[in-house]
Fold:
Amino acid sequence: MALPAHVEPLERIWFYTFRVICGLIFVFLIGPILVIIPLSFNAVPYFTFTPEMLSFDPAGYSTKWYMDFFTNPNWQGAVRNSVIIAIFATIASTALGTLAALGLSRAEMPFKKFFMALLISPMIVPLIISAAGMYFFYSRIGLASTHLGVIIAHAALGTPFVVITVTATLVGFDQSLIRAGLNLGANPRTVFFKIIMPLILPGVISGALFAFITSFDEVVVVLFVGSYEQRTIPWAMFSGIREQISPTILAVATILVMISILLLTTVEVLRRRSERLRGLSPT
Amino acid sequence: MSADTNIDNAPILTVDGVPLKQSLQRALRQKRRGAFMLTLPLLIFIFIFFVAPIADMLFRSVENEVVAQNIPRTVAALRSWDETSGKLPSEEVFAAMVEDIKVGRKNRTIGKVARRLNYEIPGMSSLFRSSARKVARIKEGPFKEALIEIRPQWGQLETWQLIKRESDKYTASYYLAAVDARFDSSGSIVAEPEERQIYMFLFGRTLMMSLTITLLCILLGFPIAYLLATLPMRYAALLMILVLLPFWTSLLVRTTAWIALLQQQGVINDFLVMLGIFDDNDRAALIYNKTGTFIAMTHILLPFMILPLYSVMKTIPPSYMRAARSLGATQFWAFIKVYLPQTLSGMGAGTILVFILSIGFYITPALVGGTSGTFISNYIADHISTTLNWGLAAALGMMLLALVLALYLLYDKIVGIDNMKLG
Structure:
């Protein structure tokens, strides 16, 4: 959108005003996330820039909040729980979601629309309602305040993402490849691992990443279904903010932002690779 | 089937002698079953661990076994009492109540009844609790006089009408409470007195605040989506990262960032004081009120508006605008008359998506909303963990769910759930 030389002054002014407005909105979008990074190196337990920090005095900076995060058993337990719960929830939702997506993308699938809506519902229902329902129901069947309960709950929340991404990858999938494979003497297992899997792998991986981040960032359900023993990083952050807010939370937040950047890059690379492989976009 | 291919009307047979039609149908059935079997494990999983909990919650919002279970004798005796007769129940009912309270006190179950009835008429809890302490004194009849002597409330019709009404297995009273109404003593539905009407106000506030947040998202999201859609691809891809990074960052991290920025001793207030806009002793209250919820939630939901808008704007050919300009429209009118109408489908999708997500928000309002900026979800959570009125929590939750599902159907009509995209 370059500006031609002949435009009127009014349009010229509007053109630059528009860009400034957009710049401000971008600052609004990204600013808060960037600001917490320097704040997490604050030497004193304040949530703002001290004069020492602004004059770039090394004494104004410190890594003690990171030290606290890496040594405090409260946080370390949270990290362990987060990783365990997210990994198992991801495995469960990826396996179940991929299978379901394979079924749902077949032309012969009966009541496709209804089942799709049902399987996507964990994404639609407000989290507080899922959390409350799970809290009541899991208490009845003895799953409340157990790791298994939280894993199952997170797996249920993660499956829609896997179903959606894998179904999207299967849109351009040529079903006759399966018939060709079977025709040439492969058994269904071989067909799945040698033909289907390599083609849908990018979708499966990005679905799995979505499921992982869903579990890793999820806080409402774990607040209700879990207890201190099942505390995850978001659980610990939430109770930390409510009780006494320490800059360790900002250090944790910074680490989480780094993880998000890593995941975002992976998903983007995968998405482009998948589109290139299927010839959907020339980029 | 046309006549010339099937002259003698005999069905076409496959090699093994089965009519082709039948054979094809069987193959189709097998395929359908195959597709369904692949989906079945997830269906079962979602059904048990997601649908059943919500169904359980629906059941809880009408379930009402506490009274019938814990004072069974009274409930049985009350069956023959006509609550519209204007007379107190018979001596037999009072005797049953004394017995029930004695047993309930021993089993420590009378407190449940007290708490349940107190939701309906405040004061019921203390009536039951104090009666439970004194009822051991009553050794023999007449029980009616003895009970009324302990607490005169036992002599009021209203008390017994309430107990009779709540002795059914199912009740609508949680839903009535959720819409600020209740049964009066004669059993007809009346509105709660003005000062006790809170939930309709809360639903209204949730909707109004969500609407404001959605409008803010359109206002801020439209220019960004337009810029991204019109810039050359390589710049747009870079700027897109600035939209996707917040989208991928944990909601709690972003809420934490806003707490750090907005609080009284936070970055923004320090900056405003430095600029001299606010006095150091009179800093702006940007958080723990509605303002905090507006700012933080708009930030969190903005990518959900930008992404659908962007994907629609991407498909609008720039030549349309050029055509409008060359036909004499000013930049402004070309935009209003030609460009804007074409973005409406994306705006509709983004609006409903942001609105659906917004009305169910819990974490952000809980952390930055104080008391004036909280949503209905926060009260649901409160009833579950603090006041323990699970029936009311379930009723409020079901109403919220119904609202979300209605909006979701609308979304499906406009966009189609199959077109839902991620990232």
Remarks:
- Chain B touches chain A through 89 residues (CB under 8 Å).
- The mean pLDDT of chain B is 86.
- The first strand of chain B starts at residue 181 and ends at 183.
- The radius of gyration of chain B is 32 Å.
